[in-house]
């Protein structure tokens, strides 16, 4: 029976990666492996184990493996298991077909952008459709690894890679899912929160291995795979667009939200916004705020006093979260927002003193939006290392 299961496994599933743990194989080999382990341990301690005892240990381990595998060990049960494996094999074949087809289509647009010849709306829409299809295909594939959360931004970046490079990343995700303890041996700590794992000829994944599920926060490619894409992902924001991105950042941030706003007002930092901050803190997000500007004029002195009042209000409100909420007074006129390692926004917009309500008399505001990871890290190190 053991040989039959193993032979069938190799025949039906030429490539599994992380598709399934194949409990049939697990149960058929676990008993023998456990017995062998027992013999080796006994030899290390100069002990002997009889053949009868080895058989008993193997039999008991096999029974335990069957219980854990939760397989119905009957002819009908095995038929169901084979049918399940066949179905997963077919799903994998379809995945390969889709990802390869979309890669060819993506290559067409990649060359267009590199040559600056993507000029009409129809082609831009076509590129967006291909990207969305590829993102969905990869998202569905990685959803099988429910022990790992992959940031949607990372999935977007993966969708731009070759199939070969995607496979290499998936092997790491598979290992994180099935054998996280082994994965820790391949990672090194990057910050107090994030760890990193390098993938040969592909790039680096940045992980939070302390959380459950394990979270993949960002991805940094080794080559220029994303340069052409970044040409369309760095953009200028105007007026209410800035406020919308700010609110989206609070709702979607996974581990750190950084804000520089010279002024803060009670009108803007009111209950609704503070509730949004608190929801993020409850998710485990760290929030850091820099504020304050030294100005001796009477009007600005009043604004400065109000900013200090808001800071005290926030400190009282979020004291229960300890170091996850930090606020510091500086002398700055800079305005900056950083969301994880997903994006940053910098410009003229005061995030904590202006609600973004515009009419024909409201002053114009502008900001630059970017997903450049190197810039994000540099800005975070420069302003938020407290």
Automatic annotation (TrEMBL):
InterPro entries: PLD-like_dom. Pfam families: PLDc_2. Keywords: Coiled coil, Membrane, Transmembrane, Transmembrane helix. Residues 85-119 form a coiled coil. Gene3D superfamilies: Endonuclease Chain A. The keyword Transmembrane helix applies. The keyword Thylakoid does not apply. The chain crosses the membrane at residues 12-36. Residues 247-351 form the Phospholipase D-like domain. This is Phospholipase D-like domain-containing protein. It comes from Anoxybacteroides voinovskiense. The lineage of its organism: Bacteria, Bacillati, Bacillota, Bacilli, Bacillales.
């Amino acid at each position: 029976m053991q040989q039959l299961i193993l032979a069938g496994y190799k025949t039906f599933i030429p490539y599994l990666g992380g598709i399934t743990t194949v409990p049939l194989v697990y149960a058929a080999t676990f008993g023998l492996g456990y017995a062998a382990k027992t013999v080796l341990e006994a030899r290390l301690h100069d002990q002997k184990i009889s053949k009868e005892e080895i058989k008993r240990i193997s039999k008991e381990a096999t029974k335990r493996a069957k219980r854990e595998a939760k397989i119905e060990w009957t002819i009908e049960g095995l038929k169901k298991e084979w049918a399940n494996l066949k179905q997963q094999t077919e799903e994998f074949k379809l995945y390969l077909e889709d990802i390869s087809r979309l890669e060819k289509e993506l290559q067409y647009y990649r060359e267009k952008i590199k040559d600056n010849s993507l000029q009409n709306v129809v082609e831009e829409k076509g590129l967006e459709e291909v990207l969305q299809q590829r993102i969905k295909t990869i998202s569905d594939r990685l959803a099988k690894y429910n022990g790992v959360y992959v940031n949607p931004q990372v999935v977007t970046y993966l969708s731009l890679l070759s199939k070969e490079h995607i496979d290499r990343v998936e092997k790491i995700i598979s290992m994180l899912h099935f054998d996280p303890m082994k994965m820790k041996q391949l990672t090194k700590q990057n910050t107090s929160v994030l760890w990193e794992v390098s993938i040969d000829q592909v790039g680096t994944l940045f992980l939070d291995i302390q959380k459950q599920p394990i979270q993949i926060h960002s991805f940094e490619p080794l080559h220029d795979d994303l340069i052409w894409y970044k040409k369309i992902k760095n953009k200028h924001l105007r007026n209410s667009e800035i406020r919308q991105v700010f609110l989206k950042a609070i709702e979607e941030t996974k581990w750190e939200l950084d804000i520089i706003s010279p002024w803060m007002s009670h009108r803007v930092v009111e209950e609704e916004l503070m509730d949004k901050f608190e929801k993020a803190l409850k998710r485990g997000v760290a929030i850091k705020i820099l504020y304050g500007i030294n100005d001796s004029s009477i009007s600005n002195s009043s604004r400065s006093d109000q900013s200090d009042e808001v800071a005290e209000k926030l400190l009282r409100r979020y004291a229960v979260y300890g170091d996850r909420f930090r606020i510091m007074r500086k002398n700055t006129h800079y305005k900056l927002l950083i969301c994880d390692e997903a994006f940053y926004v910098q410009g003229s917009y005061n995030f904590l003193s202006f609600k973004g309500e515009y009419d024909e008399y409201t002053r114009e505001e502008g900001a630059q939006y970017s997903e450049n990871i190197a810039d994000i890290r540099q800005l975070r190190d420069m302003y938020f290392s407290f």
